[in-house]
Design a protein that fits this description.
88 residues, mainly alpha, 2 helices, 0% strand, elongated
Length: 88
């Protein structure tokens, strides 16, 4: 019977290779994109749904859009600060 390759038992035993500069830029750009659009679009759809339930259009949509934008900004700032720590 062939033996399976040995895998480390703990994640701390794996070695991480640093990403090359182009890969780091690409990964950061893709990560930033979803952090910008997902909360914003999700909050707009949530606001439209709330508006339709309570018949208060466009109040909930505008409030949720503002909250989603703030959440997006916070997520991007946290992500970029972690990239700065990683690249040093």
């Amino acid at each position: 019977m062939p033996q399976s390759p040995q895998h480390p038992k703990h994640a701390s035993q794996t070695t991480k290779r640093p990403l090359s500069a182009p890969m780091l830029i690409l990964a950061t750009a893709l990560d930033t994109t979803w952090r910008l659009f997902a909360p914003t679009l999700g909050s707009v759809f949530l606001g439209i749904w709330i508006d339709s339930i309570f018949n208060i259009a466009p109040i909930a949509t505008i409030i949720c859009l503002i909250l989603g934008t703030i959440l997006s900004i916070v997520l991007v700032i946290r992500q970029l600060s972690s990239v700065r720590k990683y690249s040093r």
